[in-house]
Amino acid sequence: MQDCLITLQNCRIEDSRRTIIKNISWFMQSAQVWLVTGANGSGKDAFLSALAGTLRIVPNENACGIAAQASCAPLHCGTLMQSNTLLERAQSGSTLLQNGMPQSEQNLAKNACGAQYSSAFGNSVELVSLERAALLIQEERENDESDYIKGGVDIGRTGRVFIAEAIAKQSVNQQKKRAELYEIARRIESFPEIKLCGIENILDRGLKYMSTGEIRRTLLARALVSGKKLLILSDPFAGLDSESRSILQTFFNTIATRQLTSAASEQFPRIILGMERYHEIPDAVSHVLEFCESAVSFCGARNEYEMLLAKRASCRNTTRDADKAARVRRISDLHHAAQLARPADNASLKHVGGNARLVRSNDDHALGTNAARQNASSKDSAETTTTSNKTALVEMHNVTVGWGERRVLVNLNWSLHEGEHWLIRGPNGSGKTTFLELITGDNMQAYCNDVRMFGKRRGTGETIWDIKAQLGIVSYRLHVEYRMVASTSLLNVLVSGFKDSIGLYERPTDAEITAARKWLAFGGFAERERELFSSISYGEQRALLILRAVVKCPPILVLDEPCHALDENYRQKILDLLETIAESGATTLLHVTHETDEMLACEKHILELRPNETPMYKIITR
């Protein structure tokens, strides 16, 4: 039998407060490459965190007399009920324990009958995840010293220093190691891992100024040079452009194939891949472990799992049309609830920066018809900037944005009109997030450019709250900021969408609470309104923030990679929700994504950013 590298036999996974997974048995052997998958909140993230050492793996104390075998819990996914038995069995006699485990737990692991936890990797494990990226950005912002620096800009740690720290295994604050750290940082471009991740050109940029994809690649490069024996890559392809994905796919297959074919592979790290979706799975993956409702729902060979997925897809397809029709009916009810939750002065025309904008009546929201939209537009056309009788919501004239000698956007001319839904695309670092931040007000260079919102140039009298009142926003930045008030309840997260605040600091109205509860139920969070934002998975957090963005049915919905870390079912539900909202006419979508299969049918207009070209953008109409 092949060597067993990790053994979990009748164990539980817990944090300081509770048991997350009550019982799991799983074994990783030397000639296997594992994919760990599962829906948001299924237990997948807890399992990967436990392997990385941030949660505890504890053999169950009551295991004496229980045979060392495991059966998977029933799976309910869509309309299919499936039960599988674990295909792999433990190799007995392995007693290596993870480094750093207290002596009492080591004795428990050794002595509990029929229960065991062992790992050949000790504490030489590195986890690369969206969660880790969010924590890194949060840390950089908390350490920002811009107020005490000449010029008022503290770029924080650069990618160069961040990666060099992992190689030197010392903090930059330790004076005696600074010379060593400097020497490593100076020659870091020569490391093949840096070229592999394609970050040579961003090494001297502050971490907090990197795009989502850039910081993911920087984290991966750091993990690769760290010398760790096991790398756990959680959703490594999320937020990456096609070129970066191709590079990472090649890397994964190269390293993982050596795991399968070479016994002398100590010089290379072992890899476990975590994915929310079974999408773009590298060829080298041989086995799949799936979680559902904090239990193992499948464990076995890849080809068997793919057959199971095909059955599930067939079942979902038979009910999708009916499910979509039901969603349309519920959206009308949700629109009506949102309208009731708005202040009384929003019932008719509201002036933003001196420009009239129509806020539709309850009947228009409920009906969402093309006739209602056309009638509203004709009444408003004499007072607003229009193209083809549609209200101009955003206009940019010769906009240029950059830092120092670096130009992200150059001479951009673009406009967003009511009901014209746009897809924004381009490679990592091309300026997509910067572009959106000019609209949301999170980039101060909006005020030194000709950027107009609802006909009024930015910086000529409107407040940031006037603007945000018209926007629903989902972004990586918002997610990071919300994690800093993570003790907020799920209900209050949604209610804060009416207040445009991070956290809730005002007493909500009864109408706002009613609307928020309806959206929670729509998103699958019914009966969970008192749970804390910090207690749910990263993917569930992202889904909740999407609901927060749409809760008030804003005129513009700004979506920066909204489906990051969402499992397949949640992702499809969110895409169908966005399509339904677009069809209702209540909101105009502005959508950034790298995923070609996330482009919505309603998105007939594309702004494609092309860095290092002249012009740096192209407008495409489908």
Helices and strands in order:
Layout: E1 4-14, E2 19-29, E3 34-38, H1 44-51, E4 56-59, E5 75-77, E6 80-82, H2 103-111, E7 116-119, E8 125-128, H3 130-142, H4 159-168, H5 178-186, H6 192-197, H7 212-225, E9 230-234, H8 242-261, E10 270-275, E11 287-292, E12 295-301, H9 302-341, E13 349-352, E14 355-358, H10 362-367, H11 370-380, E15 386-387, E16 390-403, E17 406-417, E18 422-425, H12 432-440, E19 450-453, E20 456-457, H13 464-468, E21 471-474, H14 476-483, H15 490-499, H16 510-522, H17 538-550, E22 556-560, H18 568-584, E23 588-592, E24 605-609, E25 617-621
Parallel strand pairs: 3-10, 3-11, 8-9, 9-10, 18-23, 18-24, 21-22, 22-23
Antiparallel strand pairs: 1-2, 1-4, 1-7, 5-6, 11-12, 13-14, 15-16, 16-17, 16-19, 19-20, 24-25
What does this entry show, briefly?
With 622 residues, this protein is α/β, with parallel strands linked by helices.
Description:
The structure is a single chain. With 622 residues, the chain is α/β, with parallel strands linked by helices. The chain is 36% helix and 22% strand. The protein has 18 helices and 25 strands. The protein has a six-stranded mixed β-sheet, sandwiched between helices. A six-stranded mixed β-sheet has the order 21-22-23-18-24-25, with helices on both faces. Strands 15, 16, 17, 19 and 20 form a five-stranded antiparallel β-sheet that branches. A hairpin with a 4-residue loop joins strand 1 and strand 2 (19-29). The longest helix has 40 residues, at 302-341. 44% of the residues are buried. The model is unreliable at 65-112 and 345-387 (pLDDT under 50).
